[in-house]
Design a protein that fits this description.
single chain; about 350 residues; 2 domains; six-stranded antiparallel beta sheet; binds 2,5-dihydroxybenzoic acid
């Protein structure tokens, strides 16, 4: 590799002249911007233990009334990226949100897209453009860019969910903003997961003759995901990932434009070594115990823990328990595919 010239190689008055005119020489920074072979990654493989998050979230419930928070969220920030930047990975924002019985989180819309993945509790709901979506453990709820959404809780006990947003990308583009609105009028019918899209391969006939709905299904009940994972496991060799992608039932495309979502089942004692990918990931444990080895770093995980996988990382995940383990994965592969640089790097 050729040694490139440094800033110090340049006469001081030349450098000063460049700076005065808002100009920068590329060659001293070229290798940093375009490292050979593999990107420079500041993202650390880290695990956020739910046992560390939960008591602090409950404390926030005591310390900060919902009116003073709007969204009562603790952000899972990757220390390698700077805690203040609120990035679990460079393109994935993750928060844990608490809502208490009787509380409402006011109606708003924003340019980033969000999903909610329910971690614990019963009786929570989100209203998205007038559609009231129940939130049971493991349910995935979409609140896409530009759609009104508000949350509430009609049950007992705390409800906690994981928020995943494409905020870092939208923010980096100086395109992140929010609008507040009056509470929505709720349509008096069940959400589309309970009447329009109840089985894979079946869509309402009326859906064929109109433009595709970018967000046809906004709630993916965990009950169905779990059943489908178990069925897929029955025809998948041990060591091969049992993984289902959340897609739009009208288009077959990933259900959101920037972030991708999938669910994984690991059989007792099973180890999977997913292909190395150009996208990063955040994995939340629905249930189970195990270990992940991410670029050589061992991360132990249990129920409701969450861990970060940097871009291009070598990853191995093991279920060390005696029951199946279920994982929920967020990645930015849909965005990377659209931008034309998504890659998988088979080992060997
Ligand atoms: O619930 O709408 O974690 O707007 C961050 C921003 C949650 C939400 C977050 C948000 C929300």
């Amino acid at each position: 590799m050729t040694e490139l010239g440094t800033l110090e190689d340049l006469p001081l008055d030349y450098r000063k002249g460049l700076t005065a005119k808002n100009l920068v020489p590329l060659w001293p920074s070229l290798r940093a911007a375009l490292p050979h072979g593999i990107p420079t990654r500041r993202t650390r493989p880290v695990v956020w233990k739910y046992d560390d998050i939960r008591p602090r979230l409950m404390q926030a419930g005591d310390l900060t009334p919902i009116e003073k928070a709007e969204r009562r969220v603790l952000v899972l920030a990757n220390p390698g990226l700077g805690l203040e930047n609120m990035q679990a990975t460079p393109s994935i924002y993750i928060g844990m949100q608490l809502i208490l019985p009787g509380e409402t989180a006011p109606n708003h819309l924003h340019s980033p897209s969000a999903v909610r993945f329910v971690v614990e509790g019963q009786g929570g709901y989100t209203v998205v453009n007038g559609e009231k979506l129940p939130m049971d453990k493991g349910d995935l709820i979409l609140t896409p860019s530009g759609l009104w959404h508000e949350h509430g809780h009609e049950g007992d006990g705390p409800v906690v969910w994981l928020d995943a947003l494409d905020l870092p990308t939208v923010y980096a583009m100086e395109a992140s903003f929010c609008i507040e609105g009056e509470s929505q009028t709720v349509r008096n019918q069940p959400d589309a997961s309970q009447n329009y899209f109840t089985r894979a391969g079946l869509a309402p006939m009326s859906a064929l003759g109109r433009p595709k709905d970018a967000y046809a299904l906004k709630r993916f009940p965990w009950r169905d995901v779990r059943t489908s994972l178990e069925a897929l496991a029955s025809v998948t060799n041990k060591g091969e990932a049992v993984q289902l992608a959340y897609v739009n039932p009208e288009t077959g495309e990933p259900c959101m434009p920037v972030l991708g979502f999938s669910a994984i089942l690991l059989r007792p004692g099973e180890t999977i070594s997913p292909v190395r990918r150009s996208s990063s990931a955040v994995i939340n444990v629905v249930e189970g115990q195990g270990q992940a080895i991410v670029d050589g770093v061992e991360l132990d995980w249990g129920d409701s823990d969450t861990f970060a996988v940097p871009t291009h990382a070598v990853l191995q995940i093991t279920n060390t328990g005696t029951r199946p383990a279920y994982l929920f994965q967020v990645d930015e592969a849909p965005m990377q595919r659209k931008l034309g640089f998504y890659q998988e790097f088979p080992t060997g």
